[in-house]
Design goal:
By secondary structure, this protein is mainly β. The protein has no helices and 15 strands. Strands 8, 9, 12, 13 and 14 form a 5-stranded antiparallel beta sheet that branches. It has a 4-stranded antiparallel beta sheet with strand order 5-7-11-10, with no helix packed on it.
C-alpha cells in the first residue's frame, strides 16, 4: 500500500515532503489458471494481483526460444488475463512479472494440444 515519508531538516519539512512510496510484493501474485492451448484459438493465463499491492502485471510468451506476441488485459477487480495465440504444437512458456519482478513459479508452461496427443480407442480403430 501507500506510505507517506516526512523528511525534516532542522525541524522544517524539506521541499516536496511528505513523499509517497508504494509498497508491493510480487510474491503475492497468484496464477489462477494455465490452460491447455490449441493452435488457432486464443489462450489466456489468469493472474490475480489483489494481494500484491499497487502495480502492473507484464508478460512475455516464448515457444521454442521465439517470442510470441501477447497482451495483458484487465478483468474484474485486480485480475488480468495474459492472452496469446499459440504458434506451434510445442509447449509455450509464459513469464509473468509484477512491477518488473518475476512472480513465483515462472515461467509457467502452457501445453498445446497437437495430433501427437490424440489417442483413438475402440473397435475398428
Amino acid at each position: 500500500g501507500s506510505h507517506e515519508i516526512q523528511i525534516n531538516f532542522w525541524g522544517m519539512p524539506i521541499y516536496g515532503s511528505p513523499f509517497v512510496s508504494n509498497a508491493f510484493d510480487a510474491k503475492q501474485v497468484v496464477v489462477e489458471e494455465v490452460p491447455t492451448g490449441r493452435i488457432g484459438t486464443q489462450a489466456g493465463v489468469i493472474v490475480d494481483a489483489s494481494k500484491a499491492g499497487l502495480g502492473t502485471v507484464s508478460a512475455e510468451v516464448f515457444c521454442d526460444k521465439k517470442q510470441i506476441p501477447c497482451s495483458v488485459q484487465p478483468l474484474k477487480d485486480t485480475k488480468s488475463v495474459i492472452a496469446f495465440m499459440p504458434q506451434s504444437f510445442k509447449d509455450h512458456e509464459v513469464g509473468i512479472k509484477f512491477n518488473g519482478f518475476a512472480i513465483p513459479g515462472c515461467p509457467h508452461v502452457c501445453k498445446i494440444l497437437g495430433a501427437d496427443t490424440v489417442k483413438a480407442h475402440g473397435e475398428g480403430v
